[in-house]
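Tokens in:
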């Protein structure tokens, strides 16, 4: 099977379900950002093999698939997906990691090691993805649940970066606010 179809050569592509849309659409920006986040997450996994990160990759593929689907086909393709479970899982992980680190006293700089920096890159891509998702202004409950997951995911990456500081014995660098 060929990977190229040549149908996208004129700035048009298809959603799951066959609906044709322009490649410059907000929808494609969203699932392109999800794909970018997933690729950077793969880079983070090369530094820290944490099984939950692979679970997040799986979840991001599902969410990317949902975003890439014409909403009239959600029930056909995604009826067995429960994003609420994804959200609960990420919230549990945030709580687990948060209990193992000191409370924040001030802003911290996104630096310290490769894994810390990769977690912060994932966080910022996640935040950008979230902003793009909210541009879609969907009333669809499934897509709204995906937005909530992406919001929690950015929180997770922030806490994960702080957790890496702890387990790697790397001091956090605090932002100096004023003099």
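Residues out:
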């Amino acid at each position: 099977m060929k990977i190229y179809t040549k149908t996208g050569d004129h700035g048009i592509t298809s959603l799951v379900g066959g609906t044709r849309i322009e490649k410059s659409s907000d929808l494609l920006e969203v699932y392109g950002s999800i794909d970018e986040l997933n690729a950077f997450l793969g880079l983070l996994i090369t530094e820290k093999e944490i099984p939950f990160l692979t679970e997040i990759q799986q979840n991001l593929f599902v969410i990317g698939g949902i975003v890439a689907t014409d909403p009239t086909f959600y029930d056909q393709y995604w009826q067995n997906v429960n994003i609420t479970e994804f959200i609960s899982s990420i919230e549990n992980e945030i709580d687990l990691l948060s209990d193992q680190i000191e409370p924040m006293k001030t802003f911290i700089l996104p630096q310290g090691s490769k894994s810390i920096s990769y977690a912060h890159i994932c966080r910022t891509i996640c935040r950008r993805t979230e902003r793009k998702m909210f541009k879609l202004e969907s009333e669809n409950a499934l897509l709204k649940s995906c937005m909530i997951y992406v919001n929690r995911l950015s929180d997770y990456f922030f806490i994960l970066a702080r957790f890496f500081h702890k387990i790697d014995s790397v001091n956090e660098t605090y932002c100096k606010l004023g003099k």
